[in-house]
Amino acid sequence: MSRKANNEGSIRKRANGTWEGRYSDGVNADGKQIQRSVYGKTRQEVADKLHTIFYQKQQGIYVTPTKVLVKDWLIDWLHNYAHITVRPSTYISYEGYIYNHIIPCIGDLPIQKLTPPLVQNFYNDRYLNGRTDGKGGLSSKTLHNMHNMFHQAMEQAKNNGLIMQDPTENVILPRSPKKEMRVLSVEEQLRSLSVTHLHRSGFAIKLDLATGSCIGELCALKWTDLNYQRKTIKVSRTLQRIKTDQLEREELDGSESMTMVVEGDVKTSSGFREIPIPDKIWTELMLHQQAQQQEYQTLGIPILPDGYVFAMPFGTCVEPSTMRDALNHLLAAAGIEHANFHSLRHTFATRAIEAGIPVKTLSDILGHSQVQITMDLYCHSSIDHMRDSMNALMGMF
Question: What range does the domain containing 151 cover?
Answer without folding.
Answer: 70-159
